[in-house]
Write a structure and sequence with these properties.
Largest sheet: 6 strands, mixed
Order of helices and strands: EHEEEEHEEEEEHHH
CATH class: Alpha Beta
Helix content: 25-40%
Bound molecules: zinc ion
CATH topology: Collagenase (Catalytic Domain)
Number of strands: 10
Number of helices: 5
């Protein structure tokens, strides 16, 4: 398993069609760098209970990365992406959509605030579109990309869901050039 691992980290449910859509998109992009994508069996959120903050009702994002990094290194993969249904935060931030470590080559994204239901809407396609963008964004960080000033580039920082909806699913030409150097 030399490619990218995707692992659902589940409290209630991480929907299969969302995982499928993320995996299909990531696979078609990263195949040009010779990286395949493998879906691992789902993991219970209980494994990450140390990161739960009872007062906030959220999980501290960074606590996911060392465990994910360990799984990645055991399976000798290039990257691992966790997809969870719980709400994540970081010190000084009310919430985060996701987080990545280029050193551990591990990333986590949360579907919690990507769900249109969170904003009082229902729209399956929108959830899938947002999930693909967040997955591509965090994997970009795993492979060494920083935030990009181009607001249409998927590496543009999302302060809110409005930024996520505005940007595209793909890396801009500058970011692709950097990826080519790293993944060549
Ligand atoms: Zn970012
Ligand atoms: Zn860019």
């Amino acid at each position: 398993m030399a490619g990218i691992l995707v692992i659902p980290i589940v409290a209630k449910e991480v929907e299969r069609d969302v995982i499928r859509a993320i995996v299909d998109y990531v696979r078609q992009f990263y195949s040009k760098f010779g990286l395949g994508v493998t879906i691992l069996p789902k993991m219970s959120i209980r494994r990450f209970s140390a990161g739960y903050n009872e007062i906030r009702g959220q999980f501290l994002g960074r606590t996911f990365l060392p465990i994910l990094g360990m799984i990645r290194s055991e399976l000798r993969a290039k990257a691992i992406l966790g997809i969870t249904d719980v709400d994540l935060y970081e010190e000084g931030l009310n919430f985060i959509f996701g987080l990545a470590s280029p050193y551990l080559k591990a990333a986590i994204i949360s579907l919690y605030r990507l769900k249109p239901e969170f904003y009082g809407e229902r729209n399956r396609e929108l959830l899938i579109d947002r999930s693909i963008k967040e997955a591509m964004h965090e994997l970009g960080h795993v492979f060494g990309l920083d935030h990009c000033p181009n607001p249409k580039c998927v590496m543009h920082f999302s302060n809110s869901i409005i930024d996520t909806d505005f940007k595209g699913r793909d890396y801009c030409d500058k970011c692709i050039k950097k990826l080519e150097v790293t993944l060549g």
